[in-house]
Design a protein that fits this description.
Elements: H1 7-22, H2 26-29, E1 42-47, E2 50-61, H3 64-67, H4 78-86, E3 95-104, E4 107-111, H5 122-125, H6 132-135, E5 141-143, H7 150-157, E6 164-168, H8 174-177, E7 188-191, E8 215-217, E9 222-224, E10 228-232, E11 239-243, E12 252-257, E13 262-265, H9 273-278, H10 288-304, E14 307-310, H11 317-326
Parallel strand pairs: 4-6, 6-7, 7-8, 13-14
Antiparallel strand pairs: 1-2, 2-3, 2-5, 3-4, 9-10, 10-11, 11-12, 12-13
Helix pairs in contact: 1-4
Length: 336
Amino acid sequence: MTKTLPLFRRLSHLGRMMAAFAGSPVARWSPRPPLPAPRMPAAWPLGRGITLWQLPVGVVRIRERHRALPADLQDVDDKLRFPVMMSDRRMTGWLDCTAWLIDHPEGAILVDTGESADFGTPAYFGEAAKSMGRIYPKIIDATAAAGSDLASQLTRTGIAPERIGLCVLTHTHSDHIGNLGALSGRTRLLVSPGEFAPTRGSGRLLAKLPRDGRVQETVSAESHAVAGQVMPLTARGDIFAMATPGHTVGHQSVVIDLGDRQVVLAGDAAFDDGQVDEGIIPGIIENRSLALATYDTLRRMKQLKPTLMVFTHDGQNGEKLSGFVTSQAFNPGPCS
């Protein structure tokens, strides 16, 4: 059940939000810490001929309430959540923007593209420069250090962009689609139809999607015991896209099914496992009830079989993957 705040608190949050949008970009009013040194990709052999590449592509800073709302505001009304988040001037440190590359016997699949050093420039936002281009830099601070762009990271994997037949976009926020230009013109882009549903203030950067026929909508045609209808992405059905709405109504995740265990590339469905386990709501979600339903689905996925969930901005992804692969019958370890 959601709650509406008293009038004074509502007006206070709305006033602070308006002041934030009228003021300077985040990077100007919040001291920007030094950029972390670029990290190299890490390869995680999962078995069955599948290697998962963890690609650190850019970084982002967000408000503390963007990452997680305080306990007394967890069930605030959907319409008030954004003003509540925007009224917070406390910023996190730099968070990873992780893209994932699945090297599969049937081909390479990329999940998201990370953030770009061009964030905040008119060229970056393109047709959305007059709207989103003014708003985004007042909500988040994002960039990519030299050498941590998607093109450089792909080069380090040895997998050429031409080999990537499919890029699954979990959703269309900037830190997930910031490097579409680094992909081959032959790479198909898979976007959930829910991302195209009209909604006010969603932050979706649909204007950045190419209009050359490469964008395809997710078609969920197979039944899954927990996830409902899913879309297989490989002929043998061990990689599939599943709906995980809430952060955006069209948010989707990618599952790597290894038979006796599975990996869920869960994008921004949450910031970490604790939020899923405890039902903690971040400040940026389009629909609270959908987010909580997604948490329930992810928890049931873990009940189905041993499951590793990795999230775009979780700094523990490497440690979690290390524990996951070393708990198997073999001990492959990471390679860079």
